[in-house]
Automatic annotation (TrEMBL):
Domain Oxidoreductase molybdopterin-binding: start-end pairs: 34-178
Source species, domain of life: Bacteria
PANTHER family according to UniProt: OXIDOREDUCTASE MOLYBDOPTERIN-BINDING DOMAIN-CONTAINING PROTEIN, PROTEIN-METHIONINE-SULFOXIDE REDUCTASE
UniProt cross-references to SUPFAM superfamilies, sorted A to Z: Oxidoreductase molybdopterin-binding domain
Organism: Actinomadura parmotrematis
Protein name: Sulfite oxidase-like oxidoreductase
Length: 198
């Protein structure tokens, strides 16, 4: 009988900024489940719809007119790479939700290309999440989710959905694309919540 529980591997290199089981990379690996959607900014829109059916839609121009923030955050992929001290530009979800009452506890993130991921609404508010359109001082490239992606750095990076097109609030939780395929429903990297049952 093993006395070491599954998933206990310590921190590589002893870096306290790395969650368990992660390794540090200087690159920005590109991982996608399908082809990269190419969404011209002029055609991009973002819509939040609450559980009561009230919605607010922003065009690219309207979105860029909102106050932007520049989060400096670490990101952690479920495939075990971590990139520390990344620099982004985007609009806080707190700003976007000023125009739509968050009236339900769960959110489904919807994206161009059909990708979805689910999150508790509380993980989108209070300075925890952004719709990001810039990375490293440049516009966000399509392979990294441009023109805009969700950024939720305290969870595994699949929750930071690429090519984001909207958020639909829900009274009950539903799995998104990877969650329905066996990934963990929440995805906390510090608890190694990679797959269902972790």
């Amino acid at each position: 009988m093993s006395i070491v529980s599954r998933g206990f591997h310590g921190r590589r290199g002893g870096d306290p900024a790395l969650p368990p089981g992660q390794y540090l990379t200087e690159d920005f690996p590109v991982l996608s489940a399908g082809p990269t959607p190419r969404v011209p900014p002029a055609a991009w829109t973002f819509t939040i719809t609450n559980a009561a059916g009230a919605s607010r839609r922003w065009t690219w121009r309207e979105y860029l007119a909102l106050p932007a923030e520049r989060p400096h955050v670490d990101i952690h992929c479920v495939t075990k790479w971590s990139k520390l001290g990344t620099d982004w530009e985007g609009v806080s979800l707190d700003t976007l939700f000023e125009e739509v009452e968050p009236d339900a506890p769960y959110a489904m993130i919807e994206c161009y290309g059909g990708y979805t991921t689910n999150l508790p609404v509380e993980d989108l508010l209070d300075g925890k999440a952004w719709v990001a359109h810039g990375f490293g001082g440049e516009p966000l490239h399509p392979e990294h989710g441009g023109p805009a992606r969700l950024l939720v750095p305290h969870l595994y990076f699949w929750k930071s959905a690429k090519w984001v097109s909207g958020i639909r609030l829900m009274d009950h939780d539903e799995p998104g694309f990877w969650e329905a395929a066996g990934y963990h429903n929440y995805g906390d990297p510090w608890r190694e919540q990679r797959y269902e049952g972790d």
